[in-house]
Amino acid sequence: MNNEDIILSVEKLNSFYKKTVPGKFRRERIQVLKDVTFDMKKGEILGLVGESGCGKSTLAKTILNMVPDYSGTIICNDKNPQMVFQDPHGSLNPSKTIEFLLSEPMRNLTDIPQSEWRDRAAEMLVRVGLDEDYLGRLPRELSGGQRQRVCIAASLMLKPGLLIADEPVSALDVTIQAQVCELLLKLKEELGLSILFISHDLRVVYQLCDRVIIMKNGEIKESGTTDEVYFNPQNEYTKKLLNAAFGVD
What is the pLDDT along the chain (249 residues), one digit of tens a residue? Predict the structure, then answer.
């Protein structure tokens, strides 16, 4: 893979957190990620799959410098990578309007004049399938799918090249899941986005992703194109996940 084609390179990444030991007056350093290595191409959707607790979210947060205790190398060829979180309700301040929430990245991280904030927020709402009327609403006045569209719009306000979507459809019903996945595909094409799509749902990943990484207990067990991994799995853990998802051996 040509280096110019790579938006994210992770090599021998080990990530840790501190955990309080019950009944003892000390905290242990727990390793979550173990020598994780992979590259991500510009313009692709890369699926990251594994059971809850396998280290998917820790990997995402470490890439975005939200986990300080790690070793290894992370090279991100995008100056404004952004994340879309799992819970759209918890991601949005309930007391602020949609206009305020979308303007926040510009308020804190750019020198864009305030006179331009509203127009840019309205433009991004239209991109995610909502109209300008939503700017004056509060999060509680929106459905779950609409709130997730607002979260996606907020993540795009700084025009990132890399979007990390951490279980972005798991809190939505099946119909809305499909709509949000279609939106992500549309945005990928329109904006040239690269998307690291984190999920435990193998069906959604198959529909959306170009390549897939299978993770267990903080380690990568298998990776390849989606068709390679799904139709010719090499690892027993991958076979187990596929059997559970699709009911095939």
Answer: 567 799 999 999 999 998 887 777 778 899 999 999 999 999 999 999 998 889 999 999 999 999 999 999 999 999 899 999 877 777 788 899 999 999 988 877 677 788 888 999 999 999 999 999 999 999 999 998 899 999 999 999 989 999 999 988 887 888 888 998 999 999 999 999 999 999 988 999 999 999 999 999 999 999 999 999 999 999 999 999 999 888 755
The strands making up 6-20's β-sheet, listed across from edge to edge, are 27-41, 6-20, 70-76
Q: Is residue 232 a contact partner of residue 199, using CB atoms and an 8 Å limit? A: no
Phi-psi region of 22 (alpha: psi -120 to 50; beta: other; left: phi over 0): beta
Closest CA to 116 of 139, 99, 128: 99
Q: Using CA atoms, how far apart are residues 215 and 55, in angstroms rounded to an integer? A: 8
Q: Would you give the end-to-end CA distance of the chain in angstroms?
A: 33
The model's pTM is 0.91
DSSP 3-state assignment of 157?
Answer: coil
Retrieve residue 192's tokens.
Answer: 């040239």
**Residue 4, both tokens:** 């110019």
DSSP 235: S
Burial class (CB in 10 A: 0-12, 13-18, 19+), 239: middle
